[in-house]
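Q: What would this chain look like folded?
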Amino acid sequence: MTLKISKFLTIVWAALIAMFADNASLHAQQGRLQSVTFVQDNLERQFLLYRPRGAAPQGPKPLVLVIHGGAGTARGMVRLTKRRWNTLADQHGFYVVYPNGINKIWDFREGRVSSRLDPRVDDLTYFRNVIAATSNAVSIDKNRVFATGLSRGAQASFYLACNLPGQIRAVMPVATNLPEYMVNECRSGPPVGMALITGTADPQVPYNGGTITVLGQRRDIVLSSEQTLALWQRRNGCGGPPRTKNIDRRSSDGVSVAVRDWSCSGAPVRHYTVKGGGHTWPSGRQFLPPRLVGKVSNDINAADEGWAFFSQF
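A: My prediction, written as structure tokens:
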């Protein structure tokens, strides 16, 4: 009897080992999203790091910062983009970081919104620290660090392109134009790739420039999409008419996308005009009703387009 019990326990133990091994293998195949914390100016700061499956043994990899908007969070940005960046990271082998703002907002140390924040924080140093902490945790290719974001997160990608040009290779701002207060710091400097996505029916950030308005509250002033592109074309040494194409996969939804690419001596410039599109992430979640933020375009997936643009570098 004792022998039978011992044999039974051995079988159970072997089965448990196999089960945990299978779970560990599945965990590795799906990649891993982890929270990373550090202290800056006596504040605990945090971000999420996604390690793609099989990342560890394969050497330095690109890094993409995916930045939430105002009232958003790092985990909210994972959900809003439908985890598509994580899937792309698994497929193509790069790291994804989702930064997290204090009180769900970013402080650019300038502009109307930042001037009203309490507490004031140094988010430029935060982003530097995020890149450094990621570099300490995993092996990143420091020549291929990219940034994208939605709304105020898109403004953050402009902010990084203009203030950390030696660290940020290219950016993809979604649903905002360049803030007027950033013009002086952005109009010159080394080339930084620019892929801009803006909606012509954005009820918060005017496509043709003007004052950002959120739920009736007036915020900062932005350039128009064309003015934003013109600034970046000058900075990146672009010339001649752009190559153009139109995408309309769902003609019944009243939304389509026009894509323009400029030839540039420094770094490429691309624009996605989302005709009829709102203050939204293309192929992302409709995070608020269309009457508040407009329509989501499903003609393109912003994450797919972002990686296609970044992978040129």
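The first strand starts at residue 32 and ends at 40.
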